[in-house]
Amino acid sequence: MENLTMRASPLLNQRIMEHLNTGVLLLDAELIIIHMNPSAEALLEVSGKRGVGTHFFELAVEDQSDVDAMRDAVITGHSYTKREAHIHLQNQQTLTLDYSVSPVTHPETRTPTLLVELQGRDRLMRISREEQLIAKQETTRSLVRGLAHEIKNPLGGIRGAAQLLERELPSAELKEYTNIIIEEADRLRDLVDRLLGPRNIPKQEPVNIHEVLERICQLVDVESRGQVVIHRDYDPSIPEIEADKGQLIQALLNIGRNAMQAMLENPDQQERPSLTIRTRSVRQFTIGHHRHRLVAQVEIIDNGPGIPAGIRDNLFYPMVSGRAEGSGLGLSISQSIINQINGIIEFTSVPHRTVFSIFLPLESL
Questions:
Q1: pLDDT band at 335 (very low <50, low <70, confident <90, very high)
Q2: pTM attached to this predicted model
Q3: CA triple 331-333-335, angle to 5 deg
Q4: Which residue, of 79, 108, 176, 303, is most buried by count of CB atoms within 10 Å of its CB?
Q5: How far apart are CA 343 and CA 362, in angstroms?
Q6: For residue 302, which of 328, 337, 266 has the smallest C-alpha distance?
């Protein structure tokens, strides 16, 4: 039988290049882009028609040392790789990626060129952060449950003993002390209950996310006495979410209320306090280990002072707060509620712009 050999044709090579997940660019000796595949267009957020003929570092701004390194690669013919490079795009966004530079000879013109391979790191880093956050939340919940059990048992005994002692005391003046014991025991019990979060089993039902958000807007407007300007930017195409409506309101209200209080209590607030609530649908989004076909993204954005750098890594832990009057329980409870419906809360914060992003799957696992 005659052996049949498949030979790579220019068309086949082009098809392979178009379907690679790795961004691939070809630069000439002056670092001008002469070819880019669709993955490179997506990473650099520019069309091939606009990108070809443009200097690479006009689309992906780096330090002068990185420009010099590429020019040296053309001269010396040495390949190199840079890990977790922070690239500034033309739309003012920052991108983290790994890239490899390999000097090659152009197959047609025989001139020196550079083959640049781009691998986006932002998505992988975000997934890694989410997995760590989910693991931390599970550990925290287990710790709090165990701690609550150890605290509530002796509290019940203290309260009961104080009640028995109160009956035996001869004067009303002395009973004031037992009342203090009982009231403080009740206060500690309530604090432990709040640490544990909602105790009712979630009642899953179809929920319109925009009805929930309108409720949040009403409550924030009333509590702020109209001092906070609320902007809405809704995507009406988002379908209903399977969730406990009451708990979802509580989770989102905790975030909105925190933002409101941070703005109103900020002595350096120059602009009028502003809260923007935005919804979008996101396709093929990964939360932890699971990839979801469709996810609802809710963003709650404020122009307050920002979250202090010292508490950002632990913001979702119980008793962590950036406000002097804050209990530090609201965000921990919110994250717990959102985790129960397989979602997650993330945030970014700089002065005058803090964004909490809530991702809610729109299909069951």
A1: confident
A2: 0.60
A3: 70
A4: 303
A5: 10
A6: 266
